[in-house]
Structures are given as structure tokens and as C-alpha cells.
Amino acid sequence: MGWESLGQWGHDVVRVEPLSGGVANDVWSLRIGGRLAVGRLGTRSDADLAWETGLLQYLDREGLTVPVPIPTSDGRLFHDGLVVMTHLEGGPPETRADWRRVARTLRELHRLTRGWPQRPGWRSSTDLLRATTGTKIDLEAMPAEGVARCRAAWARLAGRATCVVHGDPNPGNVRVTANHIGLIDWDEAHVDVPDLDLVLPGNAACLDDGAFDVAAQASAAWEAAVCWDDDYSKKRLAEVRAL
């Protein structure tokens, strides 16, 4: 496995420069036949990549602005952990109006994916009320008191409908232009309660006070668990209220 797999996309593919923001993956800008594209090399399983690329194709067909997988010369959407996608223009959100557009885009994502199957190997926040592991999460590695606080936060989401959540709609993963709101980096996308996507700057999703508190606590607990145990995860856990 490696960047030599780019040959599967033809002989005119050129790596241009590495892109920031890739933690679990090696991400580069590419040129394919003169077009700008993005390549992401990682260790995800074929089942995981099939889930993600299938989702992105569906969202593109439904009118959302997302990176679209570019097939290999023989029609595959990934090869040995490598995915090649279209490049999205735009910059990060800068105004409250931008973030409100982001909120509307996220709600459309949630509407389009009600009942979507879970990403292979993942667990939702409410699954973790009973389960202890799922992809990057291992609750057994966290302090027992911290796990109890996280589960108390997630319990407030129990019984709600689920859908695909982007999982990390931070400014670096949003591309704003006058015509679209694009969402990139779907590495954390999975099926969960939509509230986890809606803790946005300035409460751009217009949640009422109670709903925002539930979402903020559940989101902090999720990020603490999924990143444990670096400094950021410890900071997020400190935001989850003690029992």
C-alpha cells in the first residue's frame, strides 16, 4: 500500500503538495488530466471506504456539495486505502450568516440520511451507553468517573432518531462560496443523533437553551472519548459536567 497506487487512476496523475489537517491519513493535492483533485491515503478497511464513498456519491446526487470519489481506470472508488476525490473551492465560514448556511446544510445532510446503516465498526453515542469500544473509542482506557460522565451526557440523547452526522464540522472542514456550502473530510462521519453536528459557533443552528446544552454536553463527551487521551480530549472531558 502506498502512493504508487495512484497509477490505478492513470499515467497523468501528479502529486502536488501535502495538505494540512490530515491526522489519521496522508492527504495531498493532485492533478489528474490537468484537473485539481485530492488524494487521501490511510488504513481504513475496504468496507469502511465503501460506506464513505457510497455516501458521498449519494449526497452528490442529492445536491449537497461534497468531495466526489473519482474512479480508478477500471471503475473502483478506492484502491489499497487510497481514495481520490474532487477538489472543492472556497474558504472557511467567517460570519454568522455563513454559519447559518452551514447549519442548514448539516440539517439537509441529516434529512437525506435518516435510517442510513452504521459505518462498519463504528458505534453511535447512545450505543456507548452499553458498548465499550467502537473504531477509535475505547472507554476502558478512560477513567471510570469520566466514562460515567460521558454516558450521562449521551443518555440525554436516548430514543432519538439517527442519521449520518459529519462528525467534525469545524471551520477547516467547511468550504464557503457565494453559491455553496461544501463539507470536506468525512473521516469521522458515522450514524448518530444529529445534535452532535449542531453545536456551532454563535448557536447558528438556533437550538433552544435546553437543546443546546444537551448537544454541547454530548458533543464534548464524544470528542473526549474519540480522542482519548491527548490534551484536547482531556480539555473536552473537563467540559462534561460531573454527576
TrEMBL record:
Record Gene3D superfamilies: 3.90.1200.10, Phosphorylase Kinase, domain 1
Boundaries of every Aminoglycoside phosphotransferase domain copy: 16-217
SUPFAM superfamilies: Protein kinase-like (PK-like)
Signal peptide feature range: none
Designated name of the protein: Aminoglycoside phosphotransferase domain-containing protein
Origin species: Lentzea pudingi
